[in-house]
Specification:
204 residues, alpha/beta, Rossmann fold, 7 helices, 7 strands, globular
Length: 204
């Protein structure tokens, strides 16, 4: 499962406008820790912290850490005491969250001034490719209704973030897992799947 997302993770890292060398990074919904391992090995981050509600995935993340300065915890929100991060990331996590404002407040409190939260979101109301999947799984996974991007932006702006948005510089996507309807998937990754940046302003 981890390898399937590497091309998106690389696009996420390419979208960051600051040098990640020696930064403290938070991974929201870290799953088995693959993104933080990639950031540590390729970008030279100083240390990474990841949380996820899936205990089995977190156990795997810990076992795969090796000598890297990475820490993983089982949690639904930012663990107590985790703060002063330079950068935070999430990949397809926002659509799972019932209270976006509470999530925004928690991440705001975890970031250092001028720190940014980069969130990739393709599962939203304007995404026809993912709408059928959401309908089929919303009851089983207790998903909120699909969010409109403007509502997501409003929740984070209300928490005090400066908000910006971009499309991912995705390049090639693997055909495996994206057929049939390859053209629809190309449009999804290049047009519909967004990179949102929420920046905590400098202290006054």
């Amino acid at each position: 499962m981890q390898e399937e997302h590497v091309f998106v993770w690389k696009a996420m890292l390419d979208g960051v406008v600051v040098d990640l060398v020696s930064t403290r990074v938070l991974d929201i919904g870290c799953n088995r820790g693959g993104f933080l391992r990639l950031a540590y090995d390729c970008c030279g981050i100083a240390e990474g912290f990841g949380y996820d509600p899936a205990s089995a995935a977190v156990a795997d993340a810990r076992s795969l850490t090796g000598q890297r300065r990475l820490r993983f915890e089982v949690a639904d929100t930012v663990p107590v005491g985790w703060k002063d991060f330079d950068v935070a990331f999430s990949h397809e996590v926002l659509y799972l969250i019932h209270d976006l404002r509470a999530h925004a407040d928690a991440v705001f409190g975890a970031l250092a001034p001028d720190g940014s939260y980069y969130a990739v979101m393709g599962m939203h109301a304007a995404s026809p490719v993912t709408a059928a999947w959401h309908r089929e799984h919303s009851a089983e996974l207790d998903l909120p209704s699909l969010y409109d991007i403007d509502d997501v932006v409003a929740s984070f702006a209300a928490a005090g973030f400066e908000v910006a948005a971009s499309r991912l510089r995705i390049g090639f996507i693997p055909v495996a897992g994206h057929t049939p309807n390859l053209l629809e998937w190309l449009e999804y990754y290049n047009e519909t799947k967004l990179l949102l940046r929420f920046t905590r302003p400098s202290s006054l």
